[in-house]
Design brief:
The complex is a heterodimer. By secondary structure, chain A is α+β, with helices and mostly antiparallel strands. Chain A has one domain. Chain A is 52% helix and 14% strand. In chain A, a hairpin with a 4-residue loop joins strand 1 and strand 2. The relative contact order of chain A is 0.15. Chain B folds into two domains: 166 residues, Lyase, Ornithine Decarboxylase, Chain A, domain 1, CATH 2.40.37; 254 residues, Alpha-Beta Barrel (TIM Barrel), CATH 3.20.20. In chain B, strands 4, 14, 15, 16, 17, 18, 19, 20 and 21 form a nine-stranded mixed beta sheet that branches. Chain B has an eight-stranded parallel β-barrel with strand order 5-6-7-8-9-11-12-13, surrounded by seven helices. Chain B has a two-stranded antiparallel sheet with strand order 2-3. In chain B, strand 6, helix 4 and strand 7 form a beta-alpha-beta unit. The chains are: A alpha+beta, B alpha/beta. Strand 3 of chain A pairs antiparallel with strand 1 of chain B.
Chain lengths: 77, 440
């Protein structure tokens, strides 16, 4: 489902097939882009650590939490 | 580039209303009376109750002025059950308040706080005979709740061979529901009149006061007008039919604070009457219905209005997790065992800095291993960091006195004085205090 999401310049996402809209911040958009490009969770964690200089632990907790929320929304399996 | 924790929210148009979307509000508090919330927690620990002496005085002076501008004979009594920390009680006594107590230990506390015994109002549905006698000997004001108590007072008066002044508590329909009719004598079915007759017929009793307390968090000032009218009519009857001059009427408490009652959509600023509205309703009715040469002294015991907004609770985020329904659950170090009023209020909850991030639906859970430990079940917050501090308010009324030692120790309490100096006014519980009364 996540592959269908269209995100505009204001970080508003829309999935036409189910008519659902989403509000997100820049980091969320970035992670979704990574997923759409086929990156795995571990790669996304490393990408955030490298880009923002955050700790491995913080990135791990945040990405896991974000994946959980995507799952709850039915956007990933 | 600054990192922001990732946030995504499904747009549910049902959560928007005519008051707007709840997903954008972020209220921030970094200090209380000039002292940083982080500084307070670093010095005294978390969770931490904080009281502002400045706020206490401001609120007191507002109440006093609203009534004294309209009425010449006012007496305020500090309601001990609302908050009986000695440091708090003493502020009110220094400002000129007497004490209103509803138990033996509150009575003794008031005496220990050097309140003039005749300025102590002894209220409540249960007063042991031993303490009734003590109050009589001290010439304290006794507000009788029922006929059996009236007989108790009469028998003590007979034993002492003296005439004892009493007031009766009166309950009544003032158009506010639930109707508090379990305390005192009912006005509408003449029970109060019969109690006055009982007093008039006793050689040992004299009626010197009439008291009512119509409820709590009363959002309708007109209810006080009705209550005052009914008390004034009783006063007139006591004088005209029995020749008893009732010196004072006591309208009790129940004035609402600027707290947000659950189930009420509009903000407290919209629904809570101003103190001037309460004052006008009461004093106008006294003037209108006074038929005697002398105006009665007006007593008020309004605890919540005076203290609620002067109290804050600082609590730290200990952990967070994603619940299966998508909400973010924060685990705080303060729970419902120290926030009794969380059952009634949606508190004002402020974060410690601008997180510059989207908010998401969140739930604030306390640290207790109990499912009921919920401080707020639906609040929009940005992703908060571990150890960030939330300020919860108003919590000055009833939370200290009704806090429960359960699972975790009750926390410290700090007072910030007029000069922004902090003072510890209650130490936190420890194992010794928890076990102090246990026997092997």
């Amino acid at each position: 489902m996540l592959h269908q999401i269209i995100i505009d310049e204001n970080n508003m996402g829309f999935i036409p097939s189910i008519g659902a809209s989403f509000q997100m911040n820049e980091t969320a958009r970035e992670i979704i882009n990574h997923i759409q490009q086929g990156l795995h969770k571990d790669d996304i964690i490393q990408a955030l650590v490298a880009k923002y200089g955050i700790s491995q632990q913080e990135a791990l907790i945040d990405v896991n939490d974000f994946f959980m929320k995507l799952k709850i929304y039915g956007l990933i399996q | 580039m600054k990192y922001k924790k990732p946030v995504i929210n499904r747009i549910d148009f049902a959560i928007s209303s005519k008051y707007g979307s709840p997903l954008h509000s972020q209220k921030i508090r970094t200090e209380i009376d000039g002292i940083g919330v982080h500084e307070l927690v670093e010095q005294y620990g978390s969770p931490l109750f904080v009281f502002s002496q400045k706020r206490i005085k401001e609120q007191y002076m507002q109440l006093k002025q609203a009534f004294e501008d309209r009425y010449p004979k006012l007496k305020l009594s500090w309601s001990y059950k609302t908050n009986y920390l000695n440091a708090i009680c003493k502020i009110y006594h220094q400002l000129g308040s007497g004490a209103e107590v509803v138990s033996e230990f509150e009575y003794d506390k008031a005496l220990a706080n050097n309140v003039t015994p005749s300025d102590i109002i002894y209220n409540g549905p249960y007063k042991p005979k031993e303490y009734l006698k003590k109050a009589i000997l001290n010439n304290s004001k006794i507000h009788v709740d029922h006929l059996l108590e009236l007989e108790d007072v009469q028998s003590i008066a007979q034993e002492l061979d003296q005439v004892v002044n009493v007031a009766i508590r009166v309950n009544m329909d003032v158009g506010v529901y639930p109707n508090w009719n379990r305390f005192g004598f009912n006005y509408d079915n003449n029970e109060a009149y019969e109690a006055i007759k009982f007093i008039a017929n006793s050689p040992y009793l004299n009626l010197n006061g009439l008291h009512t307390h119509i409820g709590t968090f009363i959002l309708e000032a007109n209810a006080y007008k009705i209550a005052t009218i009914k008390l004034m009519k009783l006063r007139q009857q006591a004088l005209e039919e029995f020749g008893m001059n009732v010196e004072y009427i006591d309208l009790g408490g129940g004035f609402a604070s600027k707290n947000h009652l659950k189930g009420i959509y509009q903000s407290p600023e919209v629904v809570v009457p101003s103190v001037d509205e309460y004052a006008q309703a009461i004093t106008n009715a006294i003037y209108e219905y006074n038929t005697s040469d002398e105006l009665p002294t007006l007593y008020l015991e309004t605890g919540r209005y005076l203290i609620d907004e002067a109290g804050y609770l600082l609590t730290s985020i200990q952990a967070y997790k994603r619940l299966p329904n998508g909400m973010k659950s924060y685990i705080l170090d303060a729970g419902v065992n120290i926030l009794y009023t969380s059952a009634w209020y949606n508190f004002n909850i402020e974060i410690d800095k601008d997180y510059d991030n989207l908010t998401e639906p969140s739930i604030l859970n306390g640290p207790l291993c109990m499912n009921i430990d919920v401080i707020n079940d639906n609040i929009s917050l940005p992703p908060l960091e571990r150890n960030s501090i939330l300020t919860i308010s108003p919590v000055g009324a009833y939370n200290i006195t009704q806090s429960m030692q359960f699972i975790r120790y009750r926390p410290r309490v700090v007072l910030i004085d007029d000069d922004s100096n902090t003072r510890l006014i209650r130490q936190e519980d420890d194992l010794q205090s928890v076990m102090a009364k246990e026997l092997e």
